[in-house]
From TrEMBL:
It is an enzyme of class 2 (transferase). InterPro entries: Aminotransferase_I/II_large, AspAT/PAT-like, NHTrfase_class1_PyrdxlP-BS, PyrdxlP-dep_Trfase, PyrdxlP-dep_Trfase_major, PyrdxlP-dep_Trfase_small. This is Aminotransferase. Belongs to the class-I pyridoxal-phosphate-dependent aminotransferase family. Residues 31-384 form the Aminotransferase class I/classII large domain. One of its GO terms (molecular function) is transaminase activity. PROSITE patterns: AA_TRANSFER_CLASS_1. Its cofactor is pyridoxal 5'-phosphate. It holds the Pfam family Aminotran_1_2. It comes from Sporolactobacillus inulinus CASD. SUPFAM superfamilies: PLP-dependent transferases. One of its GO terms (biological process) is amino acid metabolic process.
Amino acid sequence: MNFSNHISSLKPSATLALNDKVNRMIAQGQDIINLTVGELNYYEPEIARERAKEAIDKHFTHYTDSDGIYDLRQAISEKLRNENFLNYKPEQITVSAGGKQALFNCFFTLIDHGDEVIVPTPCWSTYLTQIKLCGGIPATISTDEKTNFKITPVMLENAITPRTKLLLLNSPSNPTGAAYSENELKELSGIIRKHKLLVISYEIYERLVYVSHYVSVGTVSEYLQENTITINGFSKSFGMTGWRIGYSASPIAIAEKISSLQSQVTANISSISQIAALAAINHFNPENKVNLQENRDYLYKFINERSPLSVPNLPEGAFYLFPNISAVVGKSFKGKMIKNSSELCSLLLENAQIAVTAGDAFVAPNNIRISYAKSMNEIVRAAQKMARFFAQLS
Ligand SMILES: Cc1ncc(COP(=O)(O)O)c(C=O)c1O
């Protein structure tokens, strides 16, 4: 079969593929603790379930506006104004099938062949794949523990070229959990303005922040207010990953193009999901965050005090730890030498029945990602299994 050039090099999402494999092993009866995927241990608010069932009973099951029903876009606009201090009108909002589609819409709308998109790494690899699918070039800025996985103004300015079209920021970050403070964003904003960059701010973990308050990128300067596309969604805050509800809020000219694109490619997301989102939007349960924070604190202490891995900086948000594995590279488990993070993950899966994701999937081969959105019981059990595994390294 002669496939198109752009699809030929496309690989499936590494994290989803691994999650599928682990779930198959669990279905076959293996006692594995799955700490791979960005999935939550809580569900949509009850009111969202009820309204969705009513929507079906009342036949709210036909096409809607392809950008999403007006009431939902208005509710999102109000949420962004009241909680994030961002000014986007309902007309500037497109509701899409998850943040994933919202992001693809933006890239497809803005990137021409050869355009560069600056992406700090470690990062979610979907960014890089989508940029390439749209003909763009990911211009990655490599960060590590020394700057708490954040870029500095100097790093940003060094990455800018005449082909730079966009800067992508993801705060708090998947996979590192690092979140930019207001001051750090202000420092970056000078360079962003100087080079007239357009920013995509991917804010999907915005409600899962454990520091004093969350700062949306678009609020730190007048320039950013006008030149930021904010992407967010219901997957992580509300445990609604399967409902597929994300959105982009863009400068109006961009929003109109995104709207045309979506109307031609998918049209509206499920009418029922939209009703569920409208019901959920003001029902975030802060308890969810408290439980995640307890898990983070427990695992952070465990990794640093009782394992050879290290997490120098306490992650500010999301639900991932991203330990550095350098201290175990070159060590052996029952005669098998650990050469990189993929091999460590395979050994952990086969011998400790713990599934975590190798850092290669996030352009960070010296790290592994542990998703800690589980019950505290499972987290404690996972830590015990890891401790037994690490005790056997020689
Ligand atoms: C940074 C980031 N963006 C987007 C997603 C997926 O979001 P959605 O379910 O809204 O497509 C994930 C999920 O793991 C993620 O980590």
